[in-house]
Amino acid sequence: MLVQILSAPYGEGHRRAARALKSAIEKRNPAWEVQVSDFVHLLHPSLDALMRVFYLQCVSQAPFFYDWFYRFTDKPEPRSGCYLSDYLGFPTMQRLLRAMPDVVVATFPTPGRICGEIKIRKKLKFPLVMVITDFAVHAEWCHPAVDLYLVATGDVKVSLEKRGVPPERILPVGIPVHPEFEEPVHRTRARAALGLRNDLPVVLVAGGSYARLGDVGRVARELLRFQNELQVVVLTGRDCGLYRKLSRELGSCPNFKIIGYTERVAPVMSAADLIITKAGALTLAEAAALGLPVLIHRWVGGQEAANASYFVQKGAALAAYGNNELLAKVEFLLSAPDGFREQMREKGRLVQPPGAAARGAAAIARLAEAGL
Question: Is the pTM of this model over 0.70?
């Protein structure tokens, strides 16, 4: 069996979901071949770099435009959207499909939609799975040729049904996260590995793969006033410039630790008592899977606004809308009774139940084995 997973480089969440599914499928079916491909890189490596820069500039410099574009393209018609990307991607996806995968899985909507168009126009038959990597639905995820939608929650399932997707094509499994987020390292060992103390609480500050978008630098500086009362670990992701800058400014401060890009995020999260982050769905899901209380700050519009709203509504996170509120809620969460934090953990696990990647892998395997 050949499983083709298609992802994209906009943020790290789509890729992390793809890797989690690959790991779960290979664990379940060791003889199967699972390929993960970056859709934009397949179009052209230069386009990959260009689109990444455009995305980062748009989100950081003109978030209002990003939010407007997200809403503008959320049309009720399931085949609406960026026709330019469809046109550019059509030949590339056709070449990829010549390998005749037994199932195609998309963790980013554009390649999934293009594969759906190929199925219809070329009258091809292959199972197509969309893995919606947010806690909300956008029209770009919807296409009539999709055979199965793997979604985060029952609420997302209801949203898809309202958009006309047959309920039998929708399966709530949770957002696929790597198993290491469901098997946390003991906090004492996790802290020892990072050189952290056990007698002070640890606050983790993260902003996704491009930490500048999450205002990580400003949050870290604000937390300086607590440097004798808690320990602060800052993840700067792929933002090398921010890593160098914060290392110069804060690296010598007591109880501060700056960490650059790492794929070993789970052990870092395991050391923390609280995470401050923007509202990327994968980070929220990973924190919920670990039972780590979440404080959402400076989220981007569009899908992140929907993710933040959902987690706060479900009681799985608190939100801070400014620096003063951020500091007040850090103090509140760290001094709150254990029962309150445990309640947040339980609500997080209801939003993101354990075993999401394994359930997704099982559903994909059933579809591949059944064929069309």
Answer: yes
